[in-house]
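Q: Please design a sequence for this.
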């Protein structure tokens, strides 16, 4: 039994799916003109018709055009360019009729009759007296070829890297630029690298979409000086011409790559060039460049690749609040005012007259520069990790985040907790992995107060009058008994930062709310001649006492009445409510 091919189905498949590039027909014709030694190509575009003509040596046998997988080129062309003999059928993707005219013949190809009626006898051939050249006229065009008016740009992209193109190309009488460009000519960007190996030529560069352009992060792959496809490569852009022996392409249009071991080896070599570029940025680039490409660097390089080149600023209580505000101001000023919050505008306004020059301290120093700070600063070049404490709680924050985490930074400085100020993701990864540093957003302060109260007895007339006043206040807030007590209050404050104790100290508390009772420190009562008052009504002296201690009274009542916690918005609002009520009730 012999193997047979269904010609009609094969042609339908080629028309619908085989040629992934709608302009494959044009590229095939231009390449044929190059192989034929043409010096001029003329393309005429009309309504529902396209005519392509060159003045090359032409074709003498129509069979080599219309026989699938047959090539009529000589041995030199076959050896150097490996033509499949199928490219001409790409015209079926855009037209329903085709007329081919060359040396001694004119052929009429009824594509519509073949596809829709299954008629394989759809080509009529006549003789002519033509001696050279090759002409193709495409008519009854498909509706999906509306972008053909961009032919000029597409032709320029097709021929710009083909070294053998020496002919003129005219579209509707207009000559387009077909000047040749070397694959190793970069786009001129600072970190672009030219590649010229035995099987690969071109260039690559780091690329951030939007900042570096809108072409996209991909590598344009060429084989035999013909564009194949865009291969996505996150964070990079460039052009690579690969020798045909180093890559396998899908037939017949050769517009896709076969992802085999050749491709894997090729991409490993390409990634090697990527790493060289990124290491050069790490070693020699500015901080702006490192920050710009830090995501790509962290993605493509291991921490061992760049650890020795990274430095950062480490501080324990060595930055004043004014210096932090100045650092924040510089970060905020890089924004447009439309993107600022009112708090950020206030920071700029309040710190505008600062005498600190943070440009000399933090912000612009390059990755190789070392900046002396008032406190210890880790330097990897010392090869001594002891410079940065290894067993102490350490946080990190990006300099541009100082506005968002201003309160946490102040608390860390207050408690003498180390902070690493980073500028990019490289530094963040190093401090995370080498020193277990935690981002400042996870800063968690827990304050425990241990209270010991003694001598809960009234010792004199002043204390008796104070208790009388405080009972009135208790009744005003619907407490049946006096919730205030006077005594000797001893208070121990313990502070933990992320479960690690950083402070323990005895504090002098004016008052303390504990289990529904407010204990007033005996030593800190403001007397105001209260011992001479005997009236059952509130006197002005009593009111003065309340006013002098209003903040303390309202603060502790908020804990008891509303159960609020210190240093919260809810507690502040509760204290204001109580204060207003007391003031209103006094008069």
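A: Design:
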């Amino acid at each position: 039994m012999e193997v047979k091919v269904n010609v009609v189905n094969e042609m339908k498949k080629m028309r619908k799916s085989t040629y992934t590039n709608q302009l494959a027909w044009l590229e095939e014709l231009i390449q044929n003109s190059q192989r034929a030694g043409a010096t001029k190509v003329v393309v005429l575009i009309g309504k529902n018709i396209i005519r392509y003509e060159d003045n090359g040596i032409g074709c003498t046998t129509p069979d080599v055009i219309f026989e699938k997988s047959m090539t009529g080129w000589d041995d030199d062309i076959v050896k150097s360019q490996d033509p499949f003999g199928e490219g001409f059928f790409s015209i079926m993707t855009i037209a329903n009729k085709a007329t081919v005219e060359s040396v001694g013949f004119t052929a009429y190809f009824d594509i519509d009759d073949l596809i829709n009626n299954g008629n394989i006898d759809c080509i009529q051939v006549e003789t002519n007296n033509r001696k050279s050249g090759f002409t193709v006229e495409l008519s009854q065009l498909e509706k999906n070829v509306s972008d053909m008016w961009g032919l000029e740009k597409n032709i320029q992209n097709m021929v710009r890297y083909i070294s053998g193109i020496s002919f003129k190309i005219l579209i509707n009488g207009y000559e387009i630029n077909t000047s040749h460009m070397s694959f190793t000519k970069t786009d001129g960007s600072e970190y672009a690298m030219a590649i010229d190996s035995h099987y690969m030529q071109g260039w690559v560069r780091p690329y951030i979409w939007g900042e570096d352009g809108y072409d996209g992060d991909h590598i344009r792959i060429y084989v035999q000086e013909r564009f194949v496809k865009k291969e996505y490569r996150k964070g990079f852009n460039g052009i690579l011409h690969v020798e045909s022996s180093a890559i396998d392409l899908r037939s017949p249009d050769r517009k896709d790559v076969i992802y085999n071991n050749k491709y894997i080896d090729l991409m490993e070599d390409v990634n090697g060039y990527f790493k060289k570029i990124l290491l050069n940025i790490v070693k020699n680039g500015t901080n702006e460049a490192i920050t710009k490409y830090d995501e790509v660097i962290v993605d493509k390089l291991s921490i061992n690749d760049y650890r020795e080149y990274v430095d950062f600023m480490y501080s324990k209580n060595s930055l004043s609040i004014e210096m932090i505000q100045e650092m924040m101001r510089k970060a905020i000023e890089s924004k447009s005012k439309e993107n600022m919050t009112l708090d950020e505008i206030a920071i700029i306004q309040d710190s505008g007259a600062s005498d600190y020059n943070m440009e000399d301290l933090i912000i612009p120093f390059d990755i190789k520069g070392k900046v002396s700070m008032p406190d210890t600063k880790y330097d990897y070049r010392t090869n001594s990790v002891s410079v940065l404490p290894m067993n102490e709680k350490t946080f990190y924050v990006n300099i541009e985040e100082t506005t968002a985490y201003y309160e946490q930074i102040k608390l860390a400085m207050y408690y003498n907790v180390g902070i690493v100020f980073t500028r990019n993701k490289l530094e963040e990864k190093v401090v995370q992995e080498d020193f277990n540093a935690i981002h400042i957003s996870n800063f968690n302060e827990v304050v425990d107060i241990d209270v010991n109260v003694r001598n809960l007895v009234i010792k004199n007339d002043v204390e008796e009058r104070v208790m009388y006043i405080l009972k009135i206040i208790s009744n005003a807030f619907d407490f049946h008994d006096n919730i205030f007590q006077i005594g000797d209050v001893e208070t121990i404050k313990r502070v933990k930062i992320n479960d690690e104790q950083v402070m323990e100290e005895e504090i002098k508390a004016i008052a303390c709310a504990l289990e529904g009772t407010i204990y007033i420190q005996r030593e800190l009562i403001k007397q105001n001649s209260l011992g001479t008052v005997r009236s059952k009504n509130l006197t002005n002296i009593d009111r003065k006492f309340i006013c002098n201690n209003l903040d303390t009274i309202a603060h502790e009542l908020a804990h008891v009445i509303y159960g609020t916690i210190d240093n919260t918005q809810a507690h502040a609002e509760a204290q204001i409510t109580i204060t207003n009520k007391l003031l209103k009730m006094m008069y």
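Q: Thanks. Anything notable?
A: The chain is about 35% helix and 25% strand. The CA atoms of residues 394 and 436 lie 8 Å apart.
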